[in-house]
Amino acid sequence: MKPRAVLIGVLSFVGLGAVGFVLPRWTVFLFSLALARGLAALSVALLMRAGLVSFGQSLFFATGAYTAAFMVRLLGVREAGLLLVGAVIVSMTVAALTGLWIARYREIFFAMLSLAFTMILYGWLLKAYWITGGTDGLRIPPPTVLGTAWSVDTLRSVLYEATLVCTAVALVLIHLFLDSPLGYALRAVRDNEVRLEYLGSSVWQVVYWAYVLAAGLAGLGGVLTALNVGHVDPQLAYWTTAGEFVFITLLGGTESVLAPLIGAVVFEFLRTYALKYAPYTWQMALGGMMLLLILFMPRGLWTLRYLRFRKAVS
Amino acid sequence: MSRPFSVLNIFILILLASTPPGSPQAPTPPGAPAQLKVGIVVFLSGAAAAPFGVPARNATELLIEQLNAGSAPKPYDRPGIGGVPIRAVYVDEAGGAERQVAELRRLVLEEKVDFVIGYISSADCLAIAPVAEELKVLTFLFDCGTNRIFEDRTYRYVFRTSAHQVIDSIGLARYLLKIRPNVRTVAGLNQNYAWGQDSWNTFRDALLKLKPDVKVVSEQFPKLFAGEFSTEISALLAARPEFIHSSFWGGDLEGFTIQMTPRGLHRRSLIAFTPGETMLPRLGRDVPPGIIVGARGPHGPFAPNTPLNQWFVRAYRDRYGIRPVYASYHMAQALLGVKAAFEKALAANEGKWPTVDQVIAALEYLEFETPSGTIRMAIGKGHQAVEPTAYGITGPYDPQQKEVRLTNVMTFPAECVNPPDGVKSEDWIRQGFPGARCP
Amino acid sequence: MTVVLETEGLTRRFGQVVAAEDLAVQVREGEQVGIVGPNGAGKTTFLNLVTGYIPPERGTIRFMGRDITGLHPRTITRLGIARTFQIPQLYSNLTVLENMLLAWAAREGRMMDPWWPLRRTAWVEPAMDLLARFGLADDADRPTYTLPEGKRKLLDVALALALRPRLLLMDEPTSGVSVREKFPLMDTLMEILLPAGVTVLFVEHDMDVVLRYAQRVLVFQGGRVVADGDPQAVLSEVLAAPSKTK
């Protein structure tokens, strides 16, 4: 990574961290949710690099969230760090299993299978209500962070900082990943599968590992959401949640690891203000705004970055 | 001589005219805010809007207007709450529990509401209650059905001004045994999610406790919003239960009723819809006779004929062209309960504006009048209301009321259908309803 | 001399069409073999069979004495057979250097590396060297889809060579290339291939190219090899008796 980019990155991280203590608490809370959601959208963007559109990242989002819930309720784990690790591991394990099958497919078949898997989880969450709480969901009591049981007020800020740290770490890891041979191989899959096979590599393996990695990302997003909200319910696994992730990715763009996160933040705030100013027609208002954005910026909000540059050049 | 007089006249007239009508100059208590902002969270879109959210919102609009103007009947004739006008901020409950948690934070921290009334979905109630507690905001759950709220945890800032689904289930079990004491076979038809599952489980457990030799011959759990029920109707026709329990609501309720009527399921089996009252004004003539309906409490056709209720029904009908259904009554309970508590705390505080802690003290174990009768915050350590419940059987259509009339109406007092304070519902049923006082 | 490639009884049909029938071919190390024949004679099918792209119905294929019949293209590639395509198969959206680096990653067996960068010095230097030998060094950072056809062909071969194959199969290396550029292109290729001791088989339609660069010619027709030997001799025989080849 270029040193200037690294510097900007570090400064932004510190800045956002400081902001957590200054902005109103509800804004900070929304931001935490947006970042978590952005991680799930990033997982969609990752798979899009390989030309695969996943309508099933909600499977791992929900798995991460419910893993945390079960770890708290059945195993008595209260430390957020352990919950995060557990959720990511379980999500990736689920992907390691479903990936064995789904990595063989592309395009519409991949999309439909991913959707099917997430709806299977949704159905089970609904039916097995004596363990999962059904539509009532499960409550997650406030976790300890770094071994300390923070007071109710400070916990919000601490969870925000934790979300920020996790997001930053994930971003760095994914950025490194995209520069690696496997990251490039992912783009190669989209470009020319035959050529990849004729280089002696297994396209299936490339897709499989990308799928597992994406699952870990989405699972991380899920557990962060669960810890911030304090409640999990089957809606997390419903396909419209996955659809939202795809939407956010399209909104933000896929050219940079930051783009889906920006899309998520914009989306979260758009939705909140739609609810505030148009309580009876907010869905229409939101849809309208999104339509305008997609029409005028089809490659995502990220392309705004180039607007200034192009003007300078011309 | 006449000119300065007429100038003075005109001046006085202008002064009088500039006083807005209907806003009596009631003195506001010392320490009171300029207005009381209330967050109202109900379904303004989606499937639950028409049967519950919109009637609740209508009731809110109507009551706040009437209360602010001081035109509600006694004991609610003091304008606003303790003289302070009320202003509502509406939030759509759609979007799921995660969204509602975020919206509650926004309501409290950005809109700075003084208290919150709302939540129709049990999932939302369960998710936001801990958050309301964290934010230390007075929150009144007004409609959701799950009995878990105060049975699983204790809250300080969260109250529920209407009874939970246990009264529907136990009440129906008792009603059934009154009208069909020798019933032998029953079936369940409930939506496959928490509301349906809980309603059925409570009803079945209560009935089997009261009459252990009853057999359950069928349990149908169609998907929520399935809309099409030919399979379930066939299964129930084949199973031939004497009685069918259903907690269907909204589009499923109306769709199912319309679909089963030509196939005669209601003639073969006695069907009961615990929240069935909502469909009476909407389906009118299309509601077949011989069906048991409940209103989740003494609401609508089961409401007592008090001046307060008469005023409420008339005012609602005049404004919205249709009578209020039980969701509207639930909202009335919440708003009037809040008003009663604040004004009681005000009086106890020698007319100075009370603190939140003083209002909480007034709310716990409070008894207040509503269009549904007296509401007592009797259980859940004084945070959960108990209500009597009633059921009736649909009869002939009344063209003046534009809905079917109800016969065989029976009311079961609160002590019959609510567990006592500190006892979990499922324990109370399992132990055989100790302490219940039933007719 | 070692027999690098040997096929026996290789047969493949597509419905009614006989694409390969009882092919028995032997290629020795270091040979430069041209494969000619009319359209539909089975030349590309032969390449596809040898590289494992399609499985034969009958027969065996041996590479360096080892039976590779029915193996997957990626396994066969790793054993040392590389091929180029009629239409160059490149990663159009990546740059020329990135294409080459991916080939390098494959060659080092490190394609599945998830964290260390693709652009590592240990790879970039030799990759650039190879590109330079093909005259592509200046185009290293251009996206491949902007390259003219001739350079795309060169890159296709360069990628194949990056894998250090023992046997290189080229499918019409000069097709689509202008007449002026054909010989320079083949000169460049042979200059690199011959010293490296790579055995080359190339399918060609241009007889001039065949005559100039092949030591031996196989004539395919109707899925069979109908002539095998010295280019001059075979081709004049074929050209002299057109009726026989119908």
CATH architecture of chain A: Orthogonal Bundle
Uncertain segments of chain B = 18-25
The CATH superfamily label of the largest domain in chain B reads: Response regulator
- Quickly give the structural class of chain A: mainly alpha
Rg from alpha-carbon coordinates of chain A: 19 Å
Describe the model.
The complex is a heterotrimer of chains A (314), B (439) and C (246). Helix content of chain A is 76%, strand content 1%. Chain A is an all-alpha fold. Chain A has a single domain (26-313), classed as ABC transporter involved in vitamin B12 uptake, BtuC (Orthogonal Bundle). Chain B is an alpha/beta fold. Chain B has helices at residues 2-17, 49-69, 97-109, 122-135, 148-152, 166-179, 194-210, 230-239, 250-260, 265-268, 279-283, 307-320, 326-348, 356-363, 414-417, 425-430, and strands at 36-42, 86-92, 115-118, 138-141, 158-160, 185-189, 215-220, 243-246, 270-273, 292-294, 367-370, 373-379, 384-386, 389-398, 403-412. In chain B, the strands form three sheets. In chain B, strands 7-6-8-9-10-14-15 form a seven-stranded mixed sheet, with helices on both faces. A five-stranded parallel sheet of chain B has the order 2-1-3-4-5, with helices on both faces. In chain B, β4, α5 (148-152) and β5 (158-160) form a beta-alpha-beta unit. In chain B, α6 crosses α7. The longest helix of chain B is centred in the C-terminal third of the chain and has 23 residues, at 326-348. By secondary structure, chain C is of the alpha/beta class. In chain C, β4 and β5 form a beta hairpin. In chain C, α3 (96-107) runs parallel beside α5 (149-162) and α5 packs parallel to α6 (179-193). Classes of the chains: A mainly alpha (314), B alpha/beta (439), C alpha/beta (246). Chains in contact: A-B, A-C. Chains A and B meet through α2 and α12 of A and β2, α3, α4 and α7 of B.
